[in-house]
Amino acid sequence: MSAQTKTEKMYATAPPGRLFFTVAMPGMISMFAMSIYSLIEGIFIGQTLGESAFAAINIAMPLVMITFALADLVGVGASAPISIALGRGDRETANNVFSASVLLIFLVSVSMGAIMFFAAEPLARLMGADAELLSTSVRYLRTVALCSPLAPIFFAMDNYLRISGYVKTSMAINILCNLLTLALLTLFLLVFKMDVVGSALATSISMCLAAVVALLPFIFKQALLEFRRPKFSLSMLRQIAACGSPVFLSNVSGRVTSILMNISLMTLGARAFGEGGGQTAVAIYAVLMYSSDLAWPLLYGIADSLSPALGYNWGAKNFRRVKSISASAFFGTAVVGLLSTALLFFFPDRIAAWFVKAEDTRLLTEATRAIRLFCTAYLFRWLAVTTQSLLSAIGKPLAAMLVSVGTAFVFPILLLGALWPLGLDGIWLNFAFVNLAAAVLSIILVLRLLREMRPSDLERPKKSDV
After folding, report:
1. Can you tell me the mean pLDDT for 42-57?
2. Residue in 44, 68, 76 with CA at minimum distance from that of residue 391
3. For residues 35 and 37, what is the distance between their CA atoms, to the nearest angstrom?
């Protein structure tokens, strides 16, 4: 039996529980490796470079993530129509969308890399960098920009490997990428005594090499998807943009929110701690983001790994199976969300100490307090993450966009003003209330989707988006 037939049969007939462990567990392991890498990176930066470097990278990171978000727009946007086309048995369309998307990602990444390199200084100022943090932020941005033509492709190839049934290969590449990054971090920061440039180089070099390795099965025609001379059409570009927009808007609006948060933190930090307090507040925010990596990649790993199977069965009109696979995804992310909340709530001091030097007592104390307030977000976050992934996978971009933009931008900005009188505590609690609102919205959309998949409708194609 060919690899192509095995992959399609797995998506179409494997019991949901078995499919979860076959597809989602490797995805979780991949994302767990990313979590470990991110935590260790934070520990390296916090313990070797200190509060100032921590704050500078947090200032620069939104722009870096916007660059990757553009690549994700194409990669995720192409994944849904590819999976749906495969479910319909239309491999020609699937291969064309795949080939066109890889070329688009490369062109977008080259353009964004050039902008980030040459406009690094004004962009860093725009993101809230003061005179003390500006130089460090600019050097970090320009280092990442040098590798941007190739590194962002890695994110999309991860999706395409899973669609092609290379689930364990995707997991192995992710693990090796993170191990290489840790090795390079050790070399650059501890041996060569480099500053934030060493951190940027370690991540970028590893992602570039991982992208090359991930391309090999497609270059040598060993995967379900194959490269073709791409034929672009307006309808294909619209479909990619529509399906990728929820994730893209979530990423971009989240980065815009981070910029506004950084600006707010500089103001509220100075008010709470006096001179230099803005830098401390931004550093606390960075600790929260690294602490979040204990759980966020695991949630995303489960939801995203099952997307190809959901898209395939939606394209095949097997809606009962869509329900069963979705239930597995919601259960898995719920368990991760509850365990993450407990871990962050009961051990905030130990987690904060990973990223903060023992002598930085103010930063350590305030970060511990912030983690305990922040962690309640994971009681609800799993609902929005899984719902957005489900809606994107089955070609419901408008509904997915409501969840993504609401979670990443609309709710945080509204609550930023509402919670402003609470000072810094209002910033830390913002995450919990945002995810509670997103959970309510997600429940409404899922109930509406379930009504659309009533038993009497199982054999009828859907006429409209949610």
Report:
1. 79
2. 76
3. 5
Q: Is residue 109 within 8 Å of residue 148, measured between CB atoms?
A: yes
Q: Say if residues 293 and 37 touch (Cβ distance below 8 Å).
A: no
423: left (phi over 0), alpha (psi -120 to 50) or beta: left
Least confident window among 133-147, 224-238, 442-456 = 442-456
CA 102 to CA 433: how far, in whole Å? 38
Output the 3-class SS for 137-183: HHHHHHHHHHCCCCCCHHHHHHHHHHHCCCHHHHHHHHHHHHHHHHH
Residues ≥6 apart with Cβ < 8 Å to 50: 357, 360
Alpha helical stretches, state H, 347-423: 348-355, 361-374, 381-393, 397-405, 411-418
Tokens coding 296: 């966020």
**How many Cα neighbours within 13 Å face the side chain of 437?**
20
Other residues' Cβ atoms within 10 Å of the Cβ of residue 423: 14
Q: CA-CA distance, 71 to 142, in Å (whole number)?
A: 18
> Which whole number is the average pLDDT over 69-75?
84
Cβ proximity of 178 and 33 under 8 Å:
yes
Cα–Cα dist 310/316, whole Å: 10
Pair of tokens at residue 169: 């290969």
Task: Please write the tens of the pLDDT for every residue from 307-333.
Answer: 888 888 888 888 889 899 999 999 999
H/E element holding 67?
Answer: helix 51-87
d(CA 150, CA 156): 11
Cβ neighbours of residue 279 closer than 8 Å, sequence gap 6 or more: 51, 52, 55, 132, 133, 266, 269
Interatomic CA distance for residues 409 and 422, integer angstroms? 20
d(CA 393, CA 309): 9
In order of 114, 303, 340, 387, 448, the CA distances from 441 in angstroms are 38, 18, 22, 10, 11
Sorted by where each begins, the domain ranges of the chain are 3-457
Select from 89, 380, 33 the least CA-distant residue to 210: 33
Residue 134, CA distances (Å) to 121, 164, 263, 324 in order: 7, 44, 14, 50
Is the pTM for the entire model greater than 0.85?
A: no
CA 359 to CA 23: how far, in whole Å? 44
Write b or e for each residue in 224-235: b if 16 or more Cβ atoms lie within 10 A of its Cβ, otherwise e.
Answer: bbbeeebeeeee
CB within 8 Å of 420: residues ≥ 6 apart: 426
